[in-house]
Design brief:
mainly alpha, two-stranded antiparallel sheet, globular, 3% strand
Length: 201
């Protein structure tokens, strides 16, 4: 899979996560509360590891992943801005509502800040671990750091408390294992192998 195609998938996941973050949901397996976008953050963090494989060297892979992260950040900001504009337009039908992201700029800002910090840290660790750990181990290792970091930054900025921390960690960890890892492994089969992988095969 090319960097462009991977970036498109990543941007879609990031934007969907931002919209989902506006609703606090009950997790089906424990009943803990978490923002609805939490699960998709586990997937987006896993996808960052694939961007490292779109280039032959660690340095180039890190740069490609950072470009992908930047695209996700910009797209997320554009989504929030456009929804705010649409929300302020006069509705064509009486009592027509449009509440998604309408009055939650603190959540949007917290989401963007958490995104910038956690995804960049994830990228740096993942780049260093490239070819030192298998892809599964790399996803689990990087997410073990970036998931708590993302949760702390988001919750403190969005709500001023860590009340939903347990739910956030559960949702993101479960998504990493149940969604992120299978997606990474499936896409990885479509990508060329690096010289280092060929040498150890």
């Amino acid at each position: 899979m090319s960097l462009a195609a991977l970036t498109g998938l990543y941007v879609a996941v990031v934007c969907a996560a931002q919209v989902g973050a506006q609703k606090i949901v009950e997790l089906p397996w424990t009943g803990a509360a978490a923002p609805g976008g939490a699960a998709l953050i586990g997937v987006s963090l896993a996808l960052v590891e694939l961007a490292h494989r779109t280039a032959p060297t660690r340095a180039e892979g890190f740069r490609n992943a950072q470009v992908m992260i930047g695209a996700g950040f910009v797209a997320s900001g554009l989504l929030a801005g456009w929804i705010a504009i649409v929300d302020r337009w006069t509705a064509a039908f009486p009592e027509q509502g449009f509440e998604v992201l309408a009055d939650t700029w603190r959540i949007v800002g917290a989401s963007l800040a958490a995104f910038a910090v956690s995804e960049t840290i994830d990228n740096g660790i993942g780049s260093w671990l490239r070819d030192r750990l298998p892809d599964v181990g790399r996803v689990l290792a990087t997410n073990a750091v970036s998931i708590p970091l993302d949760s702390f930054v988001f919750l403190l900025l969005a709500f001023g408390s860590l009340n939903f921390l347990a739910g956030q960690l559960e949702a993101k960890a479960a998504a990493t294992v149940l969604l992120g890892l299978p997606l990474v492994l499936a896409i990885r089969m479509l990508m060329p192998r690096s010289p280092e992988e060929m040498a150890t095969a």
